[in-house]
Amino acid sequence: MSETARSATEPGVFAEWLRRSTWVDFILLAIRIGVAALVLVGLAGGLAAGTYSAADFVSFTMFGLTIGSIYALIALGYTMVYGILRMINFAHGDVMMVGSFAGLFAAGGLNDAGVLGAFPLLALPLVLAAGMAAGALVSIAIERIAYRPFLHVRSLAPLICAIGMSFILQYAARGLFGTRNRAYPGFGWMEGTVSFAGLTIPIPQVVAFVAALIVLAGLLAVVRLTRLGKAMRAVAEDRDAAALVGIDVTAVIVATFAIGGAMAGVAGVLYALVFKQITVFMGFFLGVKGFAAAILGGIGNLGGALLGGLVLGLAEALGPALILEGYHLPAPYQLKDVIGYGMLVMILIFRPQGLLGERLAAKRA
Amino acid sequence: MHRERKDAPLLQVRGLRKAFGGVVAIQNVDLDVAAGSVHAIIGPNGAGKTTAFNCITAFVKPTGGRIMLAGERIDGLPAHVVARHGIARTYQNVRLFPNMTGIENVLVGQHRRLRATFWEAILGTGRFRREEKEARERALHYLDFVGIPHRAQHLARNMPYGDQRRLEIARALVGDPRMLMLDEPAAGMNPTEGRLLVELIERVRGELGVTVVLIEHHMRVVMAVAERITVFDRGAILTEGTPGEIQADERVIAAYLGRRSGQTGPAPEPIHAVPAAIPTLEARLA
What we know:
The complex is a heterodimer.
Chain A: H1 2-6, H2 13-20, H3 23-49, H4 54-85, H5 92-113, H6 115-118, H7 120-147, H8 157-177, E1 193-196, E2 199-202, H9 203-225, H10 227-237, H11 239-244, H12 249-275, H13 282-297, H14 302-322, H15 336-350, H16 360-364
Antiparallel strand pairs in A: 1-2
Helix pairs in contact in A: 4-9, 4-12, 4-13, 4-14, 5-7, 5-8, 5-12, 5-13, 7-8, 7-12, 9-10, 9-12, 10-12, 13-14, 14-15
Chain B: E1 9-20, E2 23-34, E3 38-42, H1 49-56, E4 64-69, E5 72-73, H2 79-84, E6 87-89, H3 102-109, H4 118-123, H5 126-145, H6 161-173, E7 179-183, H7 191-208, E8 211-215, H8 219-225, E9 228-233, E10 236-241, H9 243-248, H10 250-257, H11 273-285
Parallel strand pairs in B: 3-8, 3-9, 6-7, 7-8
Antiparallel strand pairs in B: 1-2, 1-4, 4-5, 9-10
Helix pairs in contact in B: 3-5, 3-6, 5-6, 7-8
């Protein structure tokens, strides 16, 4: 209620607010008060119950950052494609799934060849590279098939084509690889935990977080420093003007899909390392998570995708323990998606453009 | 219509035609632009001037005809390749990269000149840094050339309109074009700004040796700067000549002011600037 806050010093604020408000404002206010009450009561109850120690919360936070950085990697693919084409790539989640399976087969191959056992540290970059390559290739194919034919046509057809590509990838994978859960072969050194300042963190989480940070730093370097990065920004702002200063728009779009796909591939491999099992259907729910993170941060904004991913990951990891525990629900962690998406809805009600997004009206005016 | 000229034409257009569905926007357009000249295209609204520009810059695909730049065919090539052949342009309604600063806009204009590879950029090698420094210096030089050095760090969308137009010209010039095509550069400018624009166009031709083609309604600007004028009317070329010849041409005035009675077809919309501008021009040239 920015109106009430702004005019708090003036006389008759409440009367003025009443005069201006419609029934919609009353309902929104009721929702806000209700949510705030739910959160506060849950928080107080949870802290009073004292089920979790401070160390538990720190480890929840670490887990939130890990899964959040995976969401961020996926979100970046959505946000980059949106920035350039003003379109959502609905097949992006399945690109991640393909990357994850490519990593699985690479790890299996390395395991059979004995490389995994002999050089476990070398094996990880190789598995990641396989995931990136597969993700990039599939993403380029999606661009060629579902987006390129519509490049100069104002149409929503690419969206439905992308959904079609999503199903094709999902069911092709189902037919080829089966529906059962798969697990990567063990990388010996990743089985343990690291102890750090009294905390115990599983190594895969550390690896995933660090790898995600390296990839994100690399992406930012590409966008900020290279000709390709400048060309991407130019195409995002005005495709025709970019072509007329000599930028090959098609090549820039292909590169964008390739980079987004490679990052989704990394996300797929890291997810498999942290959660130990993958299925051909993982693309859908993780894709939705990544999409939600991109929207939450402000779609089209790279920093926003990163922030949105981390916020969503933290909300999911901390929310159940912090808020739901106070209500003595039987299995609060099962409700992590309720917390995550509930928060998404609330943030978007208050800030429709997302955390770092610009108001569309201002941008396009 | 094709007069003999001793300088070889830089741009040669033959039989250019563009139809949007059943609507013929332009047809039988022949145009020669001499290297190193300033060539104006005038005509009533809807006469097809911008469509001709769009065909030449491959912004739209022509339905027929040939376009040659320095003897090389450029029609049918994608827009970015045409740009790399050395044609730069500005738009009727300014098309900058609105969320980039002045200098960033001009840096993007140098896209095709930069050579440093991906890895050189990531690793920050000497060549990359040298090239980056040169590019910035060039960008600043061209901002200065068009008279807006103080706008380097401002976002394009926050600049006043006149400065946006200048920035667009700087972005076009920084890629070392052979030919600069300006679509109504003086639109929305007051007489003082118009004079500064004339000066700028003369320096583009004189100091940079860039051929200039411009579409313009402000007769004051056209007559001051152009050596040759092509008049479009209803999708075809009405006539071509020197400013003096064009001003004396009855048909041009008729095209602007509407048909005399007895002629068929709807009268084209008259151009606001012309009735006011022509008397002052006559006074100027007398």
